[in-house]
Amino acid sequence: MKVLIVGGGGREHAIAWKVAQSKKVDKLYCAPGNAGIAEVAECVNIGVMDFEALVAFAKEKEIDLTIVAPDDPLAAGAVDAFEAAGLRAFGPRANAAILEGSKAFSKDLMKKYGIPTAAYETFDNPEDAFEYLETADMPIVLKADGLALGKGVLICNTLEEAKAGVKTLMLDKQFGSAGNRIVVEEFMTGREVSVLSFVDGKTIKIMTSAQDHKRAKDGDQGLNTGGMGTFSPSPFYTEEVDAFCRKYIYQPTVDAMRAEGREFKGIIFFGLMLTPKGPRVLEYNARFGDPETQVVLPRMKNDLVEIFEACIDGTLDQVELEFEDNAAVCVVLASDGYPEHYEKGFVISGLEKFKGAEGYYVFHAGSKFDAEGNIVTNGGRVLGVTATGPDLKAARANAYKATEWIGFSNKYMRYDIGKAIDEA
Ligand code: AMP
Ligand code: GLY
Q1: Ligand 2 pocket test target in 15, 103, 282, 285 with most atoms within 8 Å of CB
Q2: Distance from C-alpha of 126 to C-alpha of 188, rounded to nearest angstrom
Q3: What secondary structure does DSSP assign to 189-240, as a single string?
Q4: What are φ and ψ of residue 58, in 5° steps?
Q5: Cβ distance 14 to 39 under 8 Å?
Q6: CB of residue 227 inside a 6 A radius of ligand 2
Q7: 64-77 residue pLDDT tens
Q8: Residue 150 binned pLDDT confidence (cut-offs 50, 70, 90)
Q9: From atom 8 of ligand 1, which residue's Cα is the shortest distance away?
């Protein structure tokens, strides 16, 4: 088979690494890819939103399967574009990717089908939002309706902060049109867990759990980022929690989407909060998580391409997912200053140390080749260093050891990824 992956970050590197191992794959392309992905796939310089060029490329190369990984092209109908051209593509169509693309849609869906989530109200104009806030309990959570790179969520402790937040989202439009509508949500407390799943429209198969670290600085301080590190499995995702979620969240979500005429095929990523009242859905994503994928896929035993095909063909009920009985930790090496201002273009050293080091992986998030052929930093998140181990503590020690193998000028990381493990 010839396979094309659309995307170019750490998540796509992990997917490409896993797809390259499939016994079904003869040739792998990635658009646009990055300097790390180039080791396992041929990178083609086409942007993820250029559907016309992507489809033309897939036709020219007779691609058998295209995997669309990021949220923006999925929400904008990338899979629909491939299908319209008679090509096979993995991922939800636009009418199903709305599960992530609109928070108002996903909240209304959960309310309609009784899926546990925080209480909320939706607002299309700032005056109504200001009025509602006057009598609301604090803290309170404001969310831009549309896609905002995971950054359109504001947690407000006081009425003043909440009003300023409405202004930021709806009047100043810090996240553009994503803030035309906002969801105002009850503030919940508890541990967060990320659960990824494969869905074929009807059947859902749950992957092993993971936990992300979204804030930029140690101790969960600083700004929200795309994710600074992950571990898998989460020791807080107990059998009891799993049983509850299977019954009240996972299958009900798949059934709800089908009942709405929005059959979901692809990945559903459940962002859960384990509150004192039980698990609640914080958010849905319609794609693999980044950097959750970098700890989940290294633990997966299955042939990933076989599962993608089963999702497309509606035969996922015949697949048994298998994961290693181990643990994995990913520490993101970022450019100092991320997620705000940072410099890039610095030469990265030490990448070769991962070659042949079993259980150690370096997934590139933002890297490229410079004119001399050096691999240089090319983004806020640069690399995800993943290591496995027999248990979480061993995996964490291994991952931090491997972060020392890498050097670049403004290297920044959190030193407390997986600290929660000690409280389990
Ligand atoms: P989201 O993009 O919806 O996952 O929100 C980003 C982050 O904001 C989550 O990972 C949580 O840490 C936090 N968050 C979102 N919604 C709530 C809520 N209702 N209560 C408390 N924290 C929340
Ligand atoms: N790691 C969170 C996300 O991918 O949205």
Answers
A1: 285
A2: 23
A3: -SEEEEEEEEEESS-EEEEEEEEE--EEEGGGEEEE-S-SEEEES-TT--HH
A4: -65, -35
A5: no
A6: yes
A7: 999 999 999 999 99
A8: low
A9: 153
Q: Can you tell me the distance from the alpha carbon of 379 to that of 393, in angstroms, rounded to the nearest whole number?
A: 29
Give bridge partners of residue 209 from the DSSP assignment: 195
Looking at this protein, which amino acid is placed at residue 72?
Answer: D
- Whether the CB of 100 sits within 6 Å of ligand 2: no
What is the per-residue burial (b if ≥16 Cβ within 10 Å, else e) of 367-395? bbeeeeeebbbbbbbbbbbbbbbeebebb
**Residue whose entry in the numeric block shows the structure tokens 């790179």:** 149
Q: Which among 67, 117, 45, 76 has a CA at the least distance from the CA of 278?
A: 117
Of 292, 295, 330, 381, the residue with max ligand 2 atoms within 8 A of its CB, to mutate for a pocket test, comes to 292
Three-class secondary structure of residue 74 per DSSP: helix
Check residue 10 and give its pLDDT. Answer: 98
- Ligand 1 center to 143 CA (angstroms): 9
pLDDT tens per residue across span 262-310: 999 999 999 999 999 999 999 999 999 999 999 999 999 999 999 999 9
The ligand that comes nearest to the alpha carbon of residue 284 is 1
Altogether, the residues listed in the chain come to a count of 424
Nearest CA to ligand 1 atom 6: 153
Per the listing, tokens 């503030």 go with 187
- Using the predicted structure, report yes or no on whether residue 181 has a pLDDT greater than 70: yes
User: Does the beta carbon of 150 lie inside 6 Å of ligand 2?
Assistant: yes
Q: How far is CA 267 from CA 13, 91, 128, 201, 399, in A?
A: 17, 7, 35, 11, 27
Rounded Cα distance between 270 and 204, Å, is 12
Q: Counting ligands in written order, which one lies closest to the CA of residue 193?
A: 1
Judged by its nearest atom, the ligand closest to the C-alpha of residue 191 is 1
DSSP state of 45: -
